[in-house]
Amino acid sequence: MKIINIMVGGPASEIPDLRQYTSAEISWIGVDRGAKRLLDHGIVPTVAMGDFDSLSKEELAHLKTKVADVREFPAEKDETDTEIGLSWAMEQNPDKIRIFGATGGRLDHLLANLMMLTKPRFLNAVPVVEMIDRYNYIKMYTPGSYTIEKLPDKKYVAFTTMKDVTGLTLKGFAYPLENATYPVGSALSSNEFVEKKGEFSFKSGMILLTQSND
Amino acid sequence: MKIINIMVGGPASEIPDLRQYTSAEISWIGVDRGAKRLLDHGIVPTVAMGDFDSLSKEELAHLKTKVADVREFPAEKDETDTEIGLSWAMEQNPDKIRIFGATGGRLDHLLANLMMLTKPRFLNAVPVVEMIDRYNYIKMYTPGSYTIEKLPDKKYVAFTTMKDVTGLTLKGFAYPLENATYPVGSALSSNEFVEKKGEFSFKSGMILLTQSND
């Protein structure tokens, strides 16, 4: 299984313990300040990319001595830093992409990161991308039927509609649903798994699933 | 000016310095764990409400000795804790409602809090509600023309569409717009004020405005 982890520049306080997500065959991308953060964690990314305007000249020079492939982009660009990292990662055809550092701090960054996967050009990325922080595991879904496992360290599960959703059925959760319809922007929060697995399906739209701790 | 501040139960790490938001004529509502947090900050709320399942029996008993009006709601309910607090606050006809503790930690709570104001029954609340955390000032807008001031401690401004938006014009920002159209879920992030004030207007839809620090 080919896994690429991306670290973007959100606050350090939201980053989970990275050791469980690191192994010899997993490659890391550091985006902007996320590249420095990886070095701070003792992880040398395969590629560092971004406008690096959040780093000092000295920090950027140090980054270049450590990372073989550093790609600088202009600060004024149409893509967000996360989108640039995700585009590069998708070109490597991975089975899974985990994004860290996408939450906390600036809310406009968080919203842009969450909404990125609703863009048509990232449709192929939806099935492989997870976002992970200290409190949340986040995954986006397109229409279909899914069986998901409860993460052992998470208590709550929530379904947020990122587009108008029809035919939503939830089984194996404390609050089940049968063929329900919800407009975009509905936050079905604070649900819980009844057993270790749950099933959900929907006919149209897009769903952001979160498993969270308090 | 009648101001009501609501503290909900998000993580303490996201709460800004509350002293600048506190004065004799401002009343506080503590929702669930937010009620305990207010006491921890030396603030006695006028009302405490929630299911209080995040408090121990001892903490709830202590709360009742300090707060004159404690309202307990069942844990299984259709409204979120924040919605219960907001409904009560709206009944007092305030000029402004500030919500603290609505961000950080559980992402499903944050999304539910942001999307709350898109619900028709909270339409009257949109002009008076602000959400504030350590990094972000958040306000929702219905169609119209607005002049907004740069907050002195914030660098970035962003416009996120909570419904399909038409006729969006931005003046006085680094990235201006003229009569633009964006579908729901567009995150126009990382804009900046050129001067101390900026103007924006739109014809239909709903916009979430954030002013943020890194």
Automatic annotation (TrEMBL), chains A, B:
SMART domains: TPK_B1_binding (SM00983)
Pfam families xrefs: TPK_B1_binding (PF04265), TPK_catalytic (PF04263)
Record's keyword annotation contains Kinase: yes
Chain ranges of the Thiamin pyrophosphokinase thiamin-binding domain: 144-208
Transmembrane segments: none
GO molecular function: ATP binding; kinase activity; thiamine binding; thiamine diphosphokinase activity
GO biological process: thiamine diphosphate biosynthetic process; thiamine metabolic process
The enzyme's E.C. designation: 2.7.6.2
Alphabetized InterPro entries for the sequence: Thi_PPkinase (IPR006282), Thiamin_PyroPKinase_B1-bd (IPR007373), TPK (IPR053149), TPK_catalytic (IPR007371), TPK_catalytic_sf (IPR036759)
SUPFAM superfamilies in alphabetical order: Thiamin pyrophosphokinase, catalytic domain
Highest taxon in the source lineage: Bacteria
UniProtKB keywords: ATP-binding, Kinase, Nucleotide-binding, Transferase
Protein name stated in the entry: Thiamine diphosphokinase
Organism encoding this protein: Listeria monocytogenes
